[in-house]
Amino acid sequence: MPVSFAARHVLDDHISGFEATPNPHHLSILRSPVVFSVLAHKGHEADIDEALTTMEDVHPRVCGPGEWLVVSEALNAEAIERALAALGAARAPFVDQSDGRVVLRIEGPRVRAILAKCTALDLHPDVFEIGQSTNCQICHVAANLARTGQDAFEIIVMRSFAGFLFDEMREMGREFALTAGFA
């Protein structure tokens, strides 16, 4: 007897009924981004970093020395897997993390004030530049934070902590009338 499963996003129940027309401060949930974890072997860090930054339609997020999360909304997992395989598994093994990670995008003119309530990072534009990313604690949850625009950031968090982080971010943004919805 075949069984049908409904594909649901982990945050469907958190957002259902609360989606609103975006305000200037908005928290977007990316529906189905592709996320790969890449770890360069010793001695190949610079080569892999250069190769990842030149790949089209992907955004490498630095996690640590020789370690990245590769994120894409435009490409499917198979296309990214082929591109990463071309780099050589002996130089940089990789794993598809798409089902285990959630990507949130937060933006607005006072986005740094919202994030300052829940992370200890210095997010001043002169210190945390566009394109920069790092692993950090956000609302007591391990996450990867990337600055993607003048007043825009992306947060990548493990699926099991996404609901908690989403609820906490909504609470931190109440002062600025933060709205939320699926991207």
Quick take:
It comes from Peteryoungia desertarenae. It holds the Pfam family SoxG. This protein has 183 residues and is an alpha+beta fold.
> How many β strands by DSSP?
10
Number of domains: 1
Outline type: globular
User: Total number of helical segments?
Assistant: 5
- CATH homologous superfamily name? Probable tRNA modification gtpase trme, domain 1
Task: Please indicate the percent range of residues in DSSP E strands (runs of 2 or more).
Answer: 25-35%
Report on this structure:
With 183 residues, the chain is of the alpha+beta class. It has one domain: 2-Layer Sandwich (Gyrase A, domain 2), CATH 3.30.1360.120. The protein has 5 helices and 10 strands; from the N terminus they run αββαββαββαβββαβ. The strands form 2 sheets. A 6-stranded mixed beta sheet has the order 7-8-9-6-1-10, with helices on one face. A 4-stranded antiparallel beta sheet has the order 3-4-2-5, with helices on one face. Strand 7 and strand 8 form a beta hairpin. The longest helix has 11 residues. The chain starts with 11 loop residues before the first helix and ends with a strand. The model has no long low-confidence stretch (mean pLDDT 93). Pfam families: SoxG (PF04268). This is Sarcosine oxidase subunit gamma.
Descriptive labels:
Sarcosine oxidase subunit gamma, 183 residues, 4-stranded antiparallel sheet, TrmE/GcvT-like, 22% helix, SoxG, 5 helices, Gyrase A, domain 2
